Amino acid sequence: MADIERLAAWHSPAMVCYRRNRIAGAAYFFTITLLDRHSTALTDQIVALGSVMRSCRFRHPFSLTAIVVLPDHMHCIWTLPEGDSDYSIRWSLIKASFTRVTALGRAKTAKRERGLWQRRFWEHTIRDDLDLQRHVEYIHFNPVKHGHVRQVKDWPCSSFHRYVRQQVLPLDWAATVDDINQGFGE
Q1: What is the pTM of this model?
Q2: Are 145 and 73 in contact (CB under 8 A)?
Q3: If we measure between CA atoms, which residue out of 109, 91, 80, 81 comes closest to residue 33?
Q4: At how many degrees (to 10) do helices 87-102 and 46-59 cross?
Q5: What backbone torsions phi and psi does residue 83 show, to the nearest 5 degrees?
Q6: Average pLDDT, stretch 89-98?
Q7: Distance of alpha carbon 64 from alpha carbon 87, whole angstroms
């Protein structure tokens, strides 16, 4: 009987175990989403989000290859330091700090969500240079895909502008939704 009880507890919905790919020093693509998909909290509080992310990077370093922040979700690519694969602690700190600093999402939901963030996040390990390029393009094109702007250059909360300053991409890259074959990303 004890074996059946242990097996039942192991399959319990309260005991969810996410399978994450963890490779020390790897690059990862992430999607982080607010619980309320109609919220504009991330862009409304973009200064606070930037401050929280810089604070996390100081305590738990990572390099930020690309990022786009939309009103209700964000995509980014991080590369973790050699010997480090703990991106979950970083996202936990960013989510908790942003919630605390902005005083948003105080009420907890039944699933322990803090009322602001979806509990989980999407993670994808970048496999090679082509995979990296496609995910960077996906990130930069995302505001156009979601109808926030007609041109990539018009979305202010994106690393696209850094890529233009560094002459990695031209200002008119993917000028409009009609100009690009959307075969990038996932």
Answers
A1: 0.81
A2: no
A3: 91
A4: 140
A5: 80, 0
A6: 95
A7: 12
Of 7-11, 46-50, 172-176, highest mean pLDDT: 46-50
Structure tokens at 72: 């209700």
What's the average model confidence in pLDDT over 160-170? 96
Q: Which of 17-21, 45-49, 54-58, 107-111 has the lowest mean pLDDT?
A: 107-111
As given in the structure block, the two tokens for residue 65 are: 């290859």
Q: What SS3 string covers 156-183? A: CCECHHHHHHCCCCCCCCCCCHHHCCCC
In this structure, are residues 90 and 36 in contact, taking their beta carbons and an 8 Å threshold?
no
Length of the chain counted residue by residue: 186
**Pair of tokens at residue 128:** 């090679």
**Residues paired with 125 in a beta bridge:** 28
Alpha helices in the chain (DSSP H): 2-10, 41-44, 46-59, 87-102, 129-145, 160-165
- Tokens 């330091």 sit at which residue? 81
